[in-house]
Prior knowledge:
Helix 2 links the parallel strand 2 (31-34) and strand 3. It is built from 25 helices and 20 strands. The chain is globular, with a radius of gyration of 25 Å. It has 610 residues and is α/β, with parallel strands linked by helices. The strands form four sheets. The protein has a six-stranded parallel beta sheet with strand order 3-2-4-5-7-6, sandwiched between helices. A six-stranded parallel beta sheet has the order 11-10-9-12-13-14, sandwiched between helices. The protein has a six-stranded parallel beta sheet with strand order 16-15-17-18-20-19.
Amino acid sequence: MSLTLTQAVPQNEIATCELLLDYLEKIGVEYVFGIPGGAIEPLYNALAKSEKRGGIKAITARHETGAVFMADAYARNTGKLGVCCSTTGPGATNMITGVASSFENNTPLLVITPQTSQDKVGKKAMQESGDTGVNVSGMFHFFTKYTSYVTDVEQFEHKLVSAIMSAFSSPGGPTHLSIPADILKSSVPIKQTKTNIDNLLRRPVLKDEEIIQDLLTELRHSKKIIFVIGAGTKNCSGLIAQCINELDIEFVATPDGKSFINPYHPSYRGVIGFAGHKSANRTLQNETVDTVVVIGSSLGEFTSNAWDQLTLLNNKLIHIDDNQENFTRSSMAKLQVSGHIPTILEAILENNKTRFPDNTEKTPDKSLIDKTKFFTHIQSDNQKLMHFEFDEPNKTTDASTPLKPQYLMTQLTRLFPPNTRYLADTGNNLAWSIHYLNPYDRRFTKRRLTKRGEEDRRSESAGLLQICAEFCSMGWSVGSAIGTSLAHPSDPVVCIVGDGSFLMSGNEITVALQEKLNIIFLVMNDQHLGMVKHGQRLNKSADIANTLPNISYALMASAMGIMSHTIETADDLLQLDTNKICERKGPTLLDIRIDAEEVPPIATRLKGMK
């Protein structure tokens, strides 16, 4: 008999699913993303009780992959655990792409899949997915940090705690529990001594004094230093800015590190790697540069300029990271510094103050000067603030029809408010966004603390421009926009997605409708799988299987009850009442007809394919 909302549980016991939610609530989780089904019903019964008392809420996705992308984005944007679930069999296998993406991006997730009851194992039960059927736990083994099949109710709490701890252990990542339906329906004795999950999740800050001294010596003897900012700097973007200001050095960013820097900083020279800028390459190749400090980067194809030995992977490299696995790709570096990145940056700053103790007294407050210049220029012409180079700068002001993607990207930051959060899906729109979209991050230095112990106001934020690096799943942004908006309900979210990706996962837009989320879905409509088409042309390959039908995504959205607009000209774009759009309690879709012949900046990707 399945557990119902009214079924009594012995006074000295607690239902396993309520125990699960109790743990999640203690660590600040607000949502469970998923799709219900028979085997997972006990968890949804517990969620129903939770919602009634104002606790954790269920968010119903339209496809299980979308549920994972929502949970992933929620985790990225809050620093909390992302939680997602499915039913047995195909529900669980549908989650695989999303979980693999989270694994590659080190996002802490808890993935819950049920199994048929244990008394039915091996009897060819419908959707059986244990070790005698389609082995879901076996599949998840390859791209989770922890996966376990709960075979006894006495194991439940221990394995749950183990999964949560593993998700947050460095580097973070997804974990998986496969729980038979009979255990989900069960209850366990209430412990008199409860597990202190907060203590278990607390991580010591390790500091290797010897290697830090080696780093300081290298920096002291360097004539010209360049910083390369990677995604691993998420929790210390303020410290990064302070180091750049006080050491007075130029810096570049990886495509996924761009989220955590100010692209209008006078020392910024652009993106290195996929869809990067020639000014960034030129800066790193300058003959006077003798030290390149890469901070928090995997140095894979996406972030290393396709393993470029001229710019990055050479004996000028110093690699700072808290993920030692990343050092396998920097074996040629003159120094590898492992440890807590904020602690290492603080040591650099402290060393600089020791060397130049009177520096702060003699030098005016650089941050105030920079901010004054910033706000003055922003009112007149924000393009004057660029200190790096676009590939085709003339097209950023070309208002011809059909719309140039370069023009569209540069207009977005003028149309939408500074607190807008952008997500760029995989495809040509990813390349256009990395190269031409530069949201206004006004940080020039470390911000003032808002409370004791807080290092950075956006320390748990995924930044103003979010991408799906490494695994690069198409269609990820639509679900991720849901998770981002739930994490930042006061900020508009702009989801930049190609028509090919939208056809894969655009159904998740109805979740934004149901939850009344302020998300603008910007569909770049060129009737092609654009990156495939241009990749084939640039590689001189066969022009095949890249066309899509001419679909009105505005009409599609309208049929769903979603506000929509078709944008064909620059006037259509500029006449949008974006203030009204950003105040709506619900999504908006913009079907933007772009010039399909514009070639995206994807040369680095083609280089990596050779």
